[in-house]
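# nightly structure sweep
# worker-07 picked up a monomer target from the shared queue
# config: single-sequence mode, recycle default, output format = structure tokens
# input follows
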Amino acid sequence: MTITPHYDRCAYCRRRFRQRMGPGRKKDYCDTRCRRLAQRQRDGQSVQLPAAAASPWGRDVAEDLQSLVAELVEAEQRRQPLPVLLTLATRLGKELTYYTAAAVQDARSRGHGWEHIAAAAGVAVDTARLRWAEARIKRLLERRARERLASPPAPPGHTLPMPRSPK
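# output follows
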């Protein structure tokens, strides 16, 4: 039996990190630096935001995609009912849309022009400009953030329900 790794978000910088699976208390922070910064913030001292907070948007969405794909594979291996599989597939499709928008925004912020983005996406330059305008991407990623706040991630160790055996 393969154990699927579990990822959590750092309580301070929101970066994803691999959670240990053994006994004992689970980590809240990705490293000791974030733990110390969070402690200073709780104590009321001034704190600068970590550099990771300014990381590219695409990486954050890609890491979420990786977890979601692992969930889907696990559901397939457990032979989950079709509604569970389709729910995961729908979530995966939405995250792919968010990833595409985030990757384009990251490319634009690195200085790539619309010609480069259009060629990479296989669309016309005007289509790329319309589809991934900065204001549109911002609204899309804000919607993603709202959805994530409305439905927090599953608690550590949470697994999908096992299908009932036929009688």
